[in-house]
Specification:
The complex is a heterodimer of chains A (about 600) and B (about 350). Chain A has about 600 residues and is α/β, with parallel strands linked by helices. Chain A is built from 24 helices and 21 strands. Chain A has three domains: about 1-20 and about 425-598, no CATH class; about 100-200 and about 350-415, 3-Layer(bba) Sandwich (FAD/NAD(P)-binding domain); about 205-350, FAD/NAD(P)-binding domain, CATH 3.50.50.60. Classes of the chains: A alpha/beta (about 600), B alpha/beta (about 350).
């Protein structure tokens, strides 16, 4: 196995599991340390660099970072990264004077953004400081897109949303509220230098089964995201007592919990599959069940049932699933009727572009989806970009933000006459974390505390209105403990072969048996010959060049490293050092900074 | 010295021994020795040896004197008995402890200063008496705690950190032990656990005095170019003249590997086996005179002979056999029997009148 190239930013980046898993590559360990130091504003601004909406995401993010968190492999529960982000947002001072601002002098380029959701606002956030004139077309009277109309206020208070969307808009975006774009052709005729489509996936999927259009169906059968929007606008203020939610994604969770707040007493969520296959995040399922929502597995909808023109129930096929050659096959084992007065369909969303003419160079594939480049976000027509849910269907907010960052780079290149395929490289900074004989610039001791549990508003109070926030946030004590659960994976164990005297001190002290000095070999063989076998193939092993005295190699399995620094503390020659790794991410604004460190 | 204690987190694949304990259960306090000290590697090897032998920690007694090496006993098996004696007096204290309670497993950890200077007389007599103990001599050629003066094991011509050369003849603990009749003599290197751990295990199971001289470099004062006890010098001049594998009783001994050329097997008193694989021609680890000559010749060529150099199992006897002591440890003998009173004393005294 060749020596590991740690000068490639990807190697150490991958060690920081949370940052690697985050679509926007938020520097999690650093912002947690800032929280630990009480520097909430600094932590908020660091977050904002990569994810733009820390307050919103601190409440609503799908948190791909948490399943990836190394702490989860060490003691079973990841650090509560997402809710700590909220702490930084809740406790920050007024940071408005530290936000990026747009120059008075514009660069003469005009960009149109369609939709004022997270993707478009990220593009605006990245381009306004460069002097672009940004025009945002928004169908509704408020900004935020799906974040506002589809995420209920009991999860995301309007004040948080207003504040963070305003940070971007106040930089000088020209938002045309209440303006629906119904023809791409005429928009293109307005001679914008670039157009970005961030209009989301606003069309809820239909369920065309017998009875869908009968009796009182118009009043009592709803499409999930449309219904959530109507609740937001106040068009719908109550619902029937017995409600079935069809589908078990995160929208279904929002629908069932909103129903409970609008007067429903008996709410059931009906899933086709069994629990391990649910699309909803585990914590959203838990929150729904805490509110006495019943989740019914392995039921496929068959018919809507009416009595005297009034919906009285739904018939389902009971399914049994089996694994056939890697594919899940279902078998109907019986029929069952579940009584209900109302049904909400939450089985997915589509993006639809009836307003984009098919003869203007924007190609669509066989599913009628635009062909969008995965890296540049550009469509087949130069200067027209897509991002967020409108690019490849529903994902989540943090992906929309990352699409926005990438599209902003592309738009900048497009407007400056550079090829959009020129992608600025990621760079890195690597600095020793040593501060004196026995000190590091981070708290290297392992904190054995269990994961902090979020306190929820009591049930009676939370059902009193639709906008009572359920999660109360962490207390200062919870925050102080939880930040110390972070293993500081960005403080990397950095090895210098030529200094090593092969004294075995690092091998002996490592609490997780990560380190071995072994005769060289190929990776598959080396993985079995270590102090503890390196069985997690998703985690890299570091291999040094031949050591000076015996030509054996130093091997480190990254999987369970606590980043406690004991290897470096026990190393007599500083062959092992703890170095703080910082990923330098290129944005439209700082491309050259990233290049300089790459 | 480290800023934190070793986190109490265990690797999920950590195995347990016959007692259901992991290696982590055999650890002790955090070492305060210098970073990179060979002694810490010896500690780690001792942890492995005790763990692999399924020794219940509370059945062992860790004995030491004074010096960097003597701190080692604090760093493994925190549930064991222990005695930290006056400088150089560990062999005598261990002899006494062993006389009183023969059922414990005794491990003495000492250094070249504690054993070969101030405690040399004590060491010699413990060897003569054949006290049943493992005697680990962590040998680095210098007095580390007093900033690196030459010790009695420093080789002629080796230099101090400041460049001054040693002119006095060294004492080789292995040759010394062989001349005094030791029944188990080995040398190893802290940087070679594959060799050291089987030797430690064999030494623990040996019924008698087991001397293990371990070259254990002092990173602070004797790991420089003029040193003959540095990591680099030891690696370059080490000659493993015999390789020992310790085969515990509960593992089946394969006849095939025993029959292989160059392999000699010695059965220990408990039925386990030490299997020798000779790497030097004609070397017989059971021939005291031959072993002495060979090791002496290696030393004169500037080579460091390592391995289980000499083993004599079953002949003669250890201290209790020689002195015909009672089988039971004193602690298990009832007070009335142990101290029969003044009447019994008077009767005994009368016999001498």
């Amino acid at each position: 196995m060749p020596p590991t190239n740690v000068s490639d930013p990807n190697y150490y980046h991958k060690v920081v599991d949370c940052q690697w898993a985050c679509p926007a590559h938020t520097n999690v360990p650093e912002y947690l340390r800032l929280i630990a130091q009480g520097r909430y504003s600094d932590s908020y601004l660091l977050n904002r660099e990569s994810n733009v909406f820390p307050g919103i995401l601190g409440r609503t993010c799908d948190r791909p970072c948490e399943p990836a968190c190394r702490r989860g492999r060490v003691d079973g529960k990841p650090v509560a990264i997402c809710r700590l982000k909220r702490v930084a947002s809740d406790l920050r001072d007024d940071i408005t004077d530290r936000l990026p601002s747009a120059p008075k002098e514009k660069n003469g380029k005009r960009v149109a953004l369609i939709g004022a959701g997270p993707a478009s606002l990220t593009v605006a956030n990245d381009l306004l400081p460069l002097g672009y004139e940004v025009v945002v077309y928004e169908k509704y009277k408020q900004a935020g897109g799906l974040m506002r109309f589809n995420i209920p206020a009991f999860r995301l208070p309007a004040a948080v949303l207003d504040e963070e969307t305003d940070y971007v808009i106040r930089m000088g975006a020209d938002v045309r509220y209440g303006t629906n774009i119904d023809s791409m052709k005429s928009l293109l005729n307005e001679n914008y230098d670039a157009v970005f489509v961030g209009s989301g996936a606003p069309k809820g999927k239909e369920l065309e089964i017998p009875g869908r259009r009968e009796g009182n169906s118009k009043e009592v059968i709803h499409i999930g995201i449309e219904w959530l929007g109507s609740v937001h606008f106040g068009h719908i203020e109550k619902i029937e007592p017995r409600v079935l939610i069809i589908g078990v994604g995160n929208t279904a969770m929002d629908c069932c919990r909103t129903s409970k707040r609008l007067g429903a007493t008996d709410v059931k969520v009906i899933a086709r599959r069994s629990r391990p296959h649910f699309k909803a995040s585990p914590w959203e399922l838990e929150d729904a069940e805490e509110e006495q929502v019943e989740i019914v597995e392995n039921h496929a909808p068959k018919t809507f049932i009416y009595a005297n023109g009034k919906l009285v129930g739904m018939e389902f096929e009971q399914l049994e699933w089996s694994d056939e050659g890697g594919k899940q096959k279902s078998k109907v084992t019986g029929l069952v009727t579940i009584p209900c007065d109302s049904v909400i369909l939450a089985i997915g969303q589509d993006n639809a572009f009836p307003w984009i003419e098919r003869d203007i160079g924007i190609e669509f594939d066989k599913w009628d989806m635009p062909n969008v480049d995965k890296t540049t976000m550009e469509s087949t027509r130069k200067g027209v970009f897509f991002g967020g849910d409108s690019a490849w269907g529903p994902q989540n907010i943090i992906w929309a933000v990352e699409h926005g960052h990438q599209a902003a780079i592309s738009i900048h290149h497009h407007c400056q006459g550079e090829p959009v395929t020129n992608r600025p490289p990621r760079g890195m900074n690597l600095v020793s974390a040593k501060v004196g004989m026995n000190g590091w610039m981070y708290s290297n001791d392992y904190n054995p505390s269990p994961r902090a549990k979020m306190t929820h508003e009591e049930l009676v109070k939370r059902f009193s209105a639709v906008n009572v926030e359920v999660e109360l946030g962490f207390t200062p004590e919870q925050t102080a403990r939880e930040v110390q659960r972070c293993l500081n994976c960005d403080i990397e164990t950095h090895f210098t072969e030529k200094l090593c005297i092969e004294c075995d001190a690092c091998v002996d002290i490592c609490p997780e048996n990560c380190i071995t000095i072994a005769p060289a070999g190929d990776e598959a063989d080396l993985r079995t010959r270590l102090s503890a076998p390196a069985l997690n193939m998703t985690q890299d092993i570091f291999v040094s060049d031949g050591l000076p005295q015996t030509k054996r190699v130093m091997v480190k399995d990254e999987d369970l490293c606590l980043h406690c620094g004991l290897c470096a503390e026990r190393c007599p020659t500083a062959a092992w050092d703890m170095k703080k790794f910082e990923l330098v991410i290129p944005y439209a604004l700082n491309r050259s900074a990233a290049e300089a460190t790459a | 010295m480290t800023s934190i204690v070793k986190p109490p987190v265990k690797h999920p694949s950590l195995q347990t021994n016959a007692l259901g304990l992991t290696k982590r259960d055999y650890e002790g306090a955090m070492s305060t020795l210098c970073a990179g000290c060979g002694h810490d590697s010896v500690t780690s090897a001792l942890i492995s040896a005790f763990w692999e032998l399924d020794v219940p920690p509370h059945r062992a007694a860790k004995m030491s004197g004074i010096g960097c090496s003597s701190k080692t006993t604090a760093y493994f098996m925190k549930q064991s008995h222990g005695f930290n004696s006056v400088h150089g007096r560990m062999p005598s204290v261990t002899s006494g402890a062993n006389a009183a309670n023969r059922d414990l497993i005794y491990i003495g950890v000492s250094g070249d200063g504690d054993s070969l200077s101030i405690g040399l007389g004590q060491l010699c007599h413990a060897i003569r008496r054949n006290v049943n103990m493992l005697y680990v001599l962590e040998n680095n050629g210098v007095y580390g705690l007093t900033k690196g003066q030459f010790s009695a094991s420093a080789d002629v011509g080796s230099t101090s950190k400041r460049g001054e050369a040693n002119m006095n003849q060294p004492i080789d603990p292995c040759l010394l032990s062989m001349t005094l009749g030791a029944t188990f003599v080995a040398r190893s290197f802290s940087g070679d656990k594959a060799q050291l751990i089987p030797i430690l295990k064999a030494g623990l199971m040996h019924n008698g005095f087991a001397m293990i001289d371990i070259i254990s470099p002092c990173v602070s004062f004797n790991d420089h170019d003029g040193s003959t006890k540095s990591y680099k010098f030891t690696r370059e001049h080490e000659v493993e003249i015999v390789h020992a594998d310790f085969v515990p009783l509960r593992k089946e001994i394969s006849a095939e590997s025993n029959a292989a050329g160059g392999v000699t097997s010695v059965t220990m008193h408990d039925g386990s086996t030490v299997r020798f694989r000779r790497t030097a021609e004609d070397y017989d680890p059971t021939n005291r005179i031959g072993a002495y000559s060979h090791v002496k010749a290696c030393g004169e060529r500037g080579e460091i002979a390592t391995g289980l150099l000499y083993l004599e199992e079953g002949s003669g006897g250890e201290m209790h056999t020689l002195n015909k002591t009672v089988k039971r440890p004193l602690v298990e003998i009832p007070q009335a029997e142990l101290c029969p009173g003044s009447k019994a004393l008077d009767e005994l005294m009368a016999e001498f009148r």
